[in-house]
Amino acid sequence: MDPRRIAYDRHGSGRPVVLLHGLGDRRQCWRAVSPRLADDYEVVSVDLPGFGASPAPERDEPYDVHSLVRVIREFCELHGLENPHLAGNSLGGSIALELGVQGVAGSVTVFSPAGFSDNLARWGMRTVGLMANLATRIPMPVKERLADTPPARAAARLALRGDPSSPEAKATRFGVRGLEPGAPYVRMVPRIADYDFTPRPIPCPVTIAWGDRDRTLLPSSAEHAHQRVPNARMVSLLGSGHIPMADDPRTVAEHIRWTCRAADRGARTAPRG
To answer: Are strands 85-89 and 16-20 parallel, antiparallel or unpaired?
Structure first.
């Protein structure tokens, strides 16, 4: 994976804040959050390789959480994003935490990060991976029609939104363009099901937030996250689902800003050698 081919948006000025989306999403998921940070920070929202406008890795290339961690670190180095604040959702949250472990992050704020699920949830993710593989055999026009049926749209709202009945959730649907043989989504789902965050120190301020209505990675996973990242500030996002940037962008921005400021205060008060 070539960091020079990663698509991104860059707004504002100040210390950089890098925003990382979840599996199957794209950088535009942060569009309601970025303007709330850009007055004080340089906000860089990224399309992870294989999603949005960033090309997918070759079939023979490693493609898992750890390979994405490497390419995002290379992306930051390439663009001069030194010691950036990192924020991520789901898969993006796992990448941000791993970069925090490596000591390259100024702070880390994550929303429902992958890697903390129990065995039952992992079985569910593997089932999703199996269904995704089966769906690759269905012609695309058929998949598009199925995704637009009322039951499929209701399932998407239930899985992804905090309040499935809200007017804002009405347009939610499952994307089926990624359900093709060898597609990034199909390749990545089993990798996420197998990924487990290993407890290690993270030498910067960390906030781990979980939507109390997350039906994709259940809120009970937050207990495992607290055990493995004991220095993290734990937050429950009331009324939010798996993608809180869509449900409550204002609160998401406030928690990112809180963690950034905690790191900035620490940097100003650190003793000079």
So the answer is: parallel
pTM of the model: 0.88
In terms of DSSP bridges, do strands 42-46 and 8-12 run parallel, antiparallel, or are they unpaired? Answer: antiparallel
> What residues make up the domain containing 200?
3-269
Q: What is the pLDDT of residues 39-68, one digit of tens each?
A: 999 999 999 999 999 999 988 899 999 999
Place 153 in a pLDDT band, splitting at 50, 70 and 90. confident
User: 41: phi > 0 → left, psi -120 to 50 → alpha, else beta; which?
Assistant: beta
131: Cβ contacts below 8 Å, ≥ 6 apart: none
Determine the Cα–Cα distance for residues 6 and 98; give it in Å rounded to an integer: 19
Residue 158: is it exposed, middle or buried by C-beta count within 10 angstroms (0-12/13-18/19+)?
middle
Q: How many helices (H) and strands (E) does the chain have?
A: 9, 7
Q: 172: which 2 tokens?
A: 């939610």
CATH number of the domain enclosing 57: 3.40.50.1820
Q: What is the pLDDT of residue 143?
A: 59
Domain count, the chain: 1
